[in-house]
Design goal:
Two copies of one chain form a homodimer. By secondary structure, chain A is α+β, with helices and mostly antiparallel strands. Chain A folds into two domains: about 5-205, CV3147-like domain (CV3147-like fold); about 225-365, Beta Barrel (CV3147-like), CATH 2.40.390.10. The first copy, chain A, has eleven helices and 18 strands. Chain A has helices spanning about 10-20, 30-40, 65-70, 80-90, 110-120, 140, 170-180, 195-200, 205-220, 225-235, 340-345; strands spanning about 5, 45, 55-60, 60-65, 120-125, 125, 150-155, 160-165, 185-190, 195, 205, 245-260, 260-270, 280-285, 285-295, 295-300, 305-310, 325-330. In chain A, the strands form five sheets. Chain A has a seven-stranded antiparallel sheet. In chain A, strands 4-9-7-8 form a four-stranded antiparallel sheet, sandwiched between helices. In chain A, strands 1-2-5 form a three-stranded mixed sheet. In chain A, strand 14 (about 280-285) and strand 15 (about 285-295) form a beta hairpin. Chain A is globular. The two termini of chain A are about 35 Å apart.
């Protein structure tokens, strides 16, 4: 069933998208401001994947770049629609809808800017089911829809169309090069597909899930209930049903650098109790990739590793990590379609240069989050 | 009048194009091999600019990259035509002819590969009147035809279309970024224009001039006449009528590095006679930019600074410079359309970060070449 989204929903959506960003994905609050400015008091129509006509033409839109640059270089706001129009002109076909390629972080918002500007509906699905750092890390690609041709727009009206055939990694490599030369941020339209393709290749209902998560955290907080219980309850009826508390403690070390268009680094979280010297180490490339508790693996990509405020449950991004923060780290299971051998080849541990094998977060003997 | 060019002409054309490359432009002998392979015993039609219909649609083709990479990464040969076809598809218009953007170095040959593959004629003109390192350094741009949209093709069939409106420097910046990510070499189609545009913005008859120069050097050598006299005589009836000998001597120092997609450096040439401690210093960015004799400027970009073998007149590129070579360095005047204030803003000394002002080579008190 289709539903509508208004400016009043955006703060909750931003909160939920930050959680699904697993530390990365870019700051959705900047995207939220851009949507608010264009949307005013109108509403955006959101289409359920099950309702799409088979031949509906869907053109996803997104931002690419390092989150550390995005928070300093705010886009004009017209770039995502320019990217969509450029791809339409290249393909000689007009979009019927747009869609996120990524439901975590700012890319939950970019298609809403396009929808607000053009009046197009947005499809409630995405191609990452979270946030990932590279354009080739898409369930779309895993299940046979390729990213090319990709259209890229810059803040001075520059447009670039890249076509690398079936080679989505080469597409990412070239688009990243252009984005770096545009100053670190570019806006894109890519993975154009039909409604039938969406049902076959996209992770369904992740936009509504992000909104529900953000709302549940806020409402629990307002009612003085546990936000972590609310997160677990909200996810229990979705494809992300397993939630684990990986660690609680204090941030005692953060190492972060922006290199090759990415924010890379690691964070250490130490137990709070006197005499407890256990630690959680998290490594990230834009997004959190792996969590090791006292050297033992407790969660690994593509499962979600989410750092949140220990009390309020507010999600914290890698660029927001600070020494001394009290945090609770959650591990969340991803849908089965993101854990197949093909999917793990595209965005599993090895795709990030990790030597550890994928282990489902729910297979570790940890207490479900919210149960304490 | 139109004329035809066959494989037998290519060695002379390569020699002349190397001279006009002023040290850079990439090695035309590699281009020559690629043309020979495709052309066989057929002929290419070359159109004189004066004969073009006003609305003839001309799509120039070229290679971009650092010459130091080009000699190690030989193209498949199909990329330039793919670039042309990509630009045609983007513009929705079919090319009637191709043309060099640069008459010096390998870019004298790239349009001939396209002509041999497609049967299109080649226009006897170009947009640099020599070789320059950047795509924005074009008489086309100086006189109002801009480079965008540019199509770029890679050796694995990748295509990229870049549109930066009137901003040719931003086009160069983005295309260079893509070229670096393609491994250092890309093939392009850009500066699409009409026959009327060619007459207004291109340097005329530079392909035939390169061929005539290469032939004159060879014939003089075969007849045991001075190749330098032959060069001066050939150029006397062209727009490049002033030729000066800047220095003769031995290469005593070469400093060269490939950085940011360019070959940059300097060479020192020392007098041969015992007791003569005079020196010529040449600085280059792909092409030779400035020649200083004992610290005094004797020739500067856009005038041509050509290093040749002291006896045979064979031109030597910056990547071919070796300690101990005996060389004769020529300065050659450029056409008036390349010396206007607008032209000097695009490719005069300041465009290369030089602080020296442009001084016409013929205004220096040096003996005409070939007069000794």
């Amino acid at each position: 069933m289709s539903w509508t989204l208004t400016a009043a929903d955006l703060p909750d959506l931003a909160r939920g998208a930050t959680l699904l960003g697993t530390g990365g994905g870019g700051d959705p609050y900047i995207g939220q401001m851009l949507v608010e400015r264009v949307l005013g008091d109108r509403a955006i129509t959101v289409l359920d994947p099950d309702d799409l006509a088979d031949d509906l033409f869907v053109v996803p839109t997104a931002q690419m770049g390092a989150p550390t640059v995005m928070i300093e270089k705010i886009p004009a706001g017209t770039e995502p629609t320019l990217a969509l129009r450029t791809l339409e002109a290249h393909l000689g076909r007009t979009a019927d809808a747009t869609m996120p390629i990524e439901c975590g972080g700012i890319n939950s918002m970019i298609p809403l800017i396009v929808a607000a500007e053009t009046g197009l509906p947005v499809v409630d699905a995405d191609g990452m089911g979270r946030a990932f750092p590279e354009l080739s890390m898409e369930t779309f690609a895993v299940y046979g829809v390729h990213g090319s041709p990709l259209a890229l727009a810059g803040e001075r009206g520059e447009t670039v169309v890249i076509d690398t055939g079936d080679d989505d990694r080469q597409m990412e490599w070239l688009a990243r090069g252009v984005t770096i030369r545009l100053g670190g941020v570019g806006h894109i339209a890519e993975y154009a597909m039909t409604g039938a393709d969406v049902r076959r290749t996209a992770v369904p209902r992740t936009l509504s899930m992000a909104l529900a998560l953000g709302r549940a955290i806020r409402e629990a907080r307002e009612a003085h209930r546990s936000p972590f219980e609310a997160i677990a309850q909200t996810l229990s009826t979705t494809l992300y049903s397993e939630v684990r508390e990986l660690f609680s403690g204090k941030v005692t070390d953060v190492e972060r650098r922006t290199t090759e268009g990415f924010a890379k680094g690691r964070a250490t979280i130490s137990a709070l109790a006197a005499g407890d010297d256990s630690q959680l180490e998290i490594r990230f490339q834009n997004e959190n990739l792996i969590a090791l508790r006292d050297g033992a693996l407790v969660a690994i990509v593509p499962d979600l590793i989410c750092v949140t405020d220990i009390e309020s449950g507010e999600p914290i991004t890698t660029e927001g990590l600070r020494y001394g923060q009290r945090v609770r780290v959650l591990g969340i299971s991803t849908p089965e379609m993101m854990r197949t051998p093909e999917a793990l080849a595209a965005f599993g541990p090895r795709a990030f240069g990790l030597t550890e094998e994928f282990v489902p977060v729910e297979s570790r003997s940890l207490a479900p989050a919210g149960s304490a």
